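Long-time lurker. I teach an intro course on protein structure, and each term I like to show students one example going from raw sequence to a predicted 3D structure in token notation. This year I'd like something fresh instead of my usual example. Would anyone be willing to generate the tokens for the chain below so I can use it in lecture? Attribution to the forum is fine with me.
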Amino acid sequence: MNDPEKEISLIVRQLCATDSPDVQKATLEKYMTSDVGFRHPVCEVKPGPNSRDALLGIFQWYRVLSPQVDIEVESVVFDPSKEVLYLEIIQWFKLGLLPLKPAPARLLTRLQLRKQAGLYYIAEQQDFYHTDEFAALLLPISRPFVRICLLAATFASNILVRGANLLGFWTTSIPISEPTPSEAGLYDKDD
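-- Reply from a regular --
Happy to contribute to a lecture. Here you go:
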């Protein structure tokens, strides 16, 4: 890539949503290093000699599982000093056999780039999902149930910390019942 910030959206589309396996393969081989690493909630490719071939298999299986994928890169941030791209992505992925409409799933992708001969190549990809977003990706109707579990865990945390506080663990010097200004913070000035 000459200009990763401008080019990456098309590359993502060609890797994840193209109708042609040949375009997908050519894109992966053109923009990823031969020793690329990949981390995802359900699979991983360790960086090493010819690891790009293993990653190609994952991208191909992704399309077999979901013959029709739509993907949109919402925002891109490039840090040239660290050679890192951050992408905010929404994808619509549906397991081919399920008679359900695909639900949008948001993820953040971190791409570690490597500059060779004046061009940037993807040396590592890491995909990050919230729990409910990942559940929606696999089975859209599971999202409300996962959100209920997340809310239950929040409720349980708050109940359990009160018990821990009563036993002297992780207590603050300000009583919980004493209100604190919600706008107080680092940037407050004494003017």
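Some talking points for your students: The chain has one domain: 4-139. The mean pLDDT is 90.
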